[in-house]
Amino acid sequence: MKQQVEQFMERHSLIEPDKTVVVGVSGGPDSLALLHLLWSMRERKKITIVAAHLDHMFRGKESEEDMEYVKMFCRERNILCETAQIDVSLYQREKGLGAQVAARECRYQFFETVMKKYKASYLALAHHGDDQVETILMRLARGSTMTGYAGMQMKRPFAGGNLVRPFLTVEKTQILAYCEQNALQPRIDKSNEKETYTRNRFRHHVLSFLKEENAHVHKQFQSFSEKLLEDAQYLEELTVQAMNKVMKRKKEEVLLTRDAFLEVRKPLQRRGIQLILNYLYKKVPPSLSSVHVDNLLIFLESEQPSGVLHFPDGLKVVRSYNDCLFTFHQEEVLPYMYELTMPGYVDLPNGRQIVCEIHNQLPIRVGGNDFFVLDIHELTLPLIVRTRKKGDKIAVKGMKGTKKVKDIFIDEKIPLEQRGTWPIVEDGSGRILWLPGLKKSAYEFDSIHGRKYGILYYK
Description:
CATH superfamily of the largest domain: HUPs
Structural class: alpha+beta
CATH architecture of the largest domain: 3-Layer(aba) Sandwich
Strand order of the largest sheet: 3-2-1-4-6-5
Oligomer: single chain
Strand content: 15-25%
Helix content: 40-55%
């Protein structure tokens, strides 16, 4: 097994000489064998080994004994050893996480701390070929990204260095045989046999079946993983090129041009969405799944011009016609209602003004919907400038009957995020007189007979 692992490490350049390697050690067969194997090649490979053990405090005295065993194992071989105890159950309750997710977060935070302390270049973990089979099958069953379907990577960036998995080339029986040959006496965590955990059910029922069909099935899965990752890397390069043409990035926002995105080839669209999510999330939440990506693609393909999707951790995807905004910004839209004096003005939240002036003569008119003429002798006061209400209707000038304000916003392609604060001018009787910049009502004064009149400007 040792020769097989060394060849795997050399073929993929997993660990370079003259570097420090932190080894995650639980005290079980897999991690103990990895620690022993790397320790045995330390002089030849010119590497420094640091063992890192975290007591999750799930099993009380038993897990504390695991920690003491790891300390003793390292002391006997003069291996640097870092240990810590974290109440993961408390962390789990505080963060609202599942037990396995909470344990993983605490463990990797600890590993990162140890790597920084020793300025280590590598974190070596003992995931093996059977683990890889289980991981790929679990992700296929629940859904993932294409990179996710490839399972665990043998080498990936972590804490300023790299996380490596030298044992992906071997299976569990080889590791157990290595422990026996080298007189290692690993600790056994009985929870690994409980079928309450999804991974254990795959291990006991699915993996055992596959091994009956092919005793070296782990090699086939590892080969599949490596090829899929190679393909994914190439497609990711194409995705970056395509997405740079259809999106604009800001600090915590991405603006996507829908029509241009839909012209991107299908195999790159899903990867493009994943690229955006990876950019926006500093740490991708566990609750984010392929279902979110599927829903977003349907959302973009839909002919409905606007809408909002809510993603984990406060990310919103706001579609408004051809624009699709990914944002964490949660600005609350507050309704407003102002009284407009004659003459006078109102400052609006959008930075513009509505100004009312009194005239004896009609000035030269500027065409468009940015002004409105009032017959002050027929006007019911006060004038009100407000935000929209459910069911608002306006008697549009030049049309019979009334039209819903909501439909006007849609027809005029007003972005969804602007509709809640768009000004509406009504008189004291509640009649909507004017949608500034959009539509005038039939109540605009057209005839001047030497009387005073008011004119409203949207500036």
